[in-house]
Amino acid sequence: MAVASVEQLTFAYPGAPPAVGDVSLSVEPGEVVLLLGASGSGKSTLLRALAGLVPWFHGGRFAGRVEVAGLDTRRVRPAELAGVVATVFQDPEDQVVLAQVEHEIAFGLENVGAPPAAILPRVHDALAAVGAEHLAGRRIAELSGGELQRVCLASALALEPQLLLLDEPTSQLDPDGAEAFLDHALAGDAAVVISEQRPAAALARADRVVFFENGVVLLDAPRDAAIAWLDEHRPAWTSLQPSNSLLEGRGGAVVSRVSDAVFAYPTGPRVLDGASLELRCGEVVALTGPNGSGKTTLAKLAAGLLEPAGGAVERTGRAAFLLQDPGRYLVSETALAEVALGADGRRARCALADVGLAWAEARHPRDLSSGERERLALATVLVDAPDLLVLDEPTRGVDPERKAELARLLRAQAASRATLVVTHDVPFARAVADREVSLGTRREALVA
Amino acid sequence: MRPTAAAALLAALAVAALVADHLWSVGALALGLLCVCLRAGRRARPYLWGTLVSAGLVFLLSPLLQSTGWHVLWSGPVVPVLGRLDVTREELWVAALNALRLAAVGLAFAVYALLLDHDRLIAAATGRRSVLAAVLATRLVPTFERDAAGLVEALRGRNLAPEGLRGHAALLSPLLAGSLERGTNLAEAMEARGFGRPGRTRLPSPPWRALDVAAVAAAVAIVVVAIWL
Question: Is residue B114 part of a domain?
Fold first, then answer.
């Protein structure tokens, strides 16, 4: 018997067109189903429907039937489905309730009425299952992004669910962290439905792939057949083309040079100890490395957002820096007004068109999907025509086809500036960069 | 000390500061709470600023709005509605007392927000839903501060650094919108994790120790003495 079945599901959020239309699928016990598709194509809506959050939490128009472990999600509230279903959302910071790791994992167990004497052992078992026993006594505020994501996974696994839902859970993790996370998440007996925008690691582990487009299931096939279909019809999902640049621009003038930089945040240990980086006009540099290796800090030094405690930074011209998760930091009432903060209306419209958001100029930024917000934020820095453009994790939440477009855009404009891309996304780094600087291993390698 | 006992003690100190009439005793309470608050280090800064500014405003403005006392220290112009602005020694005394009361209450809240284990407070509470709401509201201050810093940094990255009071005030609206969005996301995650479902159990908590009992007894005694004096 299927763990979950979806029959002719059509759902529209209040005041919006249908997010998914006539979707039918089933998930068998122990099966790993990978959901792929562009931002806003309906993947997250399906996950929310399987958790019962659609329509209970979001409202809207719901037609069809969703059953999980024999429970009709229209009759059973999401809170009552907890334990049968467990969800790990995209942003771990927005799902943490308590301040201490053990208490956070125990929160769900308490809610579902686990016997008090069994709670702590199950908490420790869940931490062990994600390789994070050492985090048991830690405070949530002290954890890195990767550690926090593992705590969120432990919170879900502690419930021993029949169905585990993962919504882009590796978007903030470096490649090794992402692989380890997926290994832990898929090691149990639960059926898993996972949505991903960096599909390589998940594709290697999935039993079945469902591809969404505009709210409709375009493909529902076993993995190997799905990979063949993707290769033929949606090649960006299986490989981004490496950059063909031959570093002709590398001889351009130095725009920013960081030499032997030392930096520590207040009350913290040294993040950088003798780091160096040189950025020249005409080149695109990818700055890679594991979580916590100081990539963002080095990029901020290069752009002048931070001052080093030791070493030197020389910079010429104007720098623009796009923070991680920039969608949180939009301040205007419309997309056009947001971009026009840094330029006149005509240039703002051009910048919106460059990132494929010409249609959204009158929309409120917070009404856009997370991937669309990322692109809007990109337009806000492109419009300024900076001499140095620094993008910190610009592909988070962005689907592979948009990543390919972003890579083409950055390559097309590369000659006019120095560009630094801080990223965990190895295929994207290879698609966009002339050279890669890797922190942690202090390795520097030519890509092209 | 158990957070429930510590919270009772802090509440008692805040009540004592509100009902006490002696400037020096309220001042001593505020000073003691300030010393405890400073143990939180840099994290205490927004709370200290908020408390200092609020108490300072009370001290500066309330003498101008009152009309009590007869030892006039300064006499100013006549202002429509308010009448003559003057400051008397008695008004200054009342203003200082109220400012210290406000400071003591603010610092007690800061100690609660910064140094107590809120998880155990929630676990011990009988009204878990309301205590959880209060604790999550408490967390708004550091979250708001972090979001504000992120927003300013994001604008600096776009060469649009906000300037002056007006520039910073314009950030309030997006900050509030961001807080609402965070709140909605958290509520969704809590619902998905079974919050509000009947039949909830609790992680076993450690037994009460002598120090906890002493703290609760001291809290009761402080309130009684403050009312009696």
Answer: yes
CA distance B188 to chain A (A): 7
CB contact under 8 A, A111 and B191: no
Residue B56 CB neighbours (<10 A): 13
Tokens at A230, concatenated: 């993707």
pLDDT of residue A177: 82
B40 and B99 housed in the same domain? yes
* Amino acid in the structure at residue A291: N
A100 at interface of B, judged by CB pairs closer than 8 A: yes
Is residue B103 domain-shared with residue B15, that is, in the same domain?
A: yes
- Buried b / exposed e along A88-118 (16+ C-beta atoms within 10 A): bbbbbbbbbbbbbbbbbbbbbbbbbebeeee
What is the rounded average pLDDT of the residues B118-146? 77
Q: Do B21 and B107 lie in a common domain? A: yes
In a domain, B199, yes or no: no
Q: Is A324 helix (H, G, I), strand (E, B) or coil?
A: coil
Which of A156, A157, A155, A165 has its CA nearest to residue A4?
A: A165
Residue B50 inside a domain? The answer is yes
Whether residues B47 and B109 fall in one domain: yes
Domain count for chain B:
2
Q: What is the domain extent for residue B43?
A: 3-121+208-228
**Do B200 and A111 lie within an 8 Å CB cutoff?**
yes
Tell me the CA distances in angstroms from A96 to A89, A154, B4, B138, one per residue in order.
10, 12, 22, 15
Nearest CA in chain A to B178: A328
Task: Residue A114: name the closest of A90, A143, A85, A82 by CA.
Answer: A82
Question: Are B114 and B128 in the same domain?
Answer: no
The closest of A391, A408, A382 to A236, measured between CA atoms, is: A408
Q: Which of B145, B180, B203, B205 to mutate to test the interface with A (most CBs of A within 10 A)?
A: B203
Contact call for B197 and A318, based on CB within 8 A: no
Q: What is the CA radius of gyration of chain B?
A: 22
For residue A331, what are the β-bridge partners?
none
- Both B15 and B79 in one domain: the answer is yes
A80-83: long-range pairs with CB below 8 Å, 24+? A80/B194, A80/B197, A81/A51, A81/A52, A82/A108, A82/A111, A82/A112, A82/A159, A82/B192, A82/B193, A82/B194, A82/B197, A83/A108, A83/A112, A83/A159, A83/A160, A83/A161, A83/B194
A231-287: per-residue pLDDT in tens? 999 988 887 666 655 444 456 899 999 999 999 887 677 888 899 999 999 999 999
| A91, A109, A305 ranked by CB distance to B157: nearest | A305
B61/B140 same-domain check: no
Report which secondary-structure segment, H or E, holds B92.
helix B89-115
Predicted TM-score (pTM) of the model is 0.83
Residue in B closest to A333 by C-alpha: B174
Report the residue from A79, A381, A386 with minimal CB separation from B194: A79
pLDDT digits (tens, 9 = 90+) for B159-175: 888 888 888 888 888 88
A80 touches chain B (CB under 8 A): yes
Asked if B93 and B43 sit in the same domain, the reply is: yes
Contact A387, A282 (CB under 8 A): no
Inter-chain residue contact B158 with A342, CB threshold 8 Å: yes
For an interface test with B, which of A71, A84, A87, A98 has the most B Cβ atoms less than 10 Å from its Cβ? Answer: A98
Please indicate, yes or no, if residue B201 is contained in any of the structural domains: no
Residues of B in contact with A326 (CB under 8 A): 154
Give ipTM to 2 decimals.
Answer: 0.84
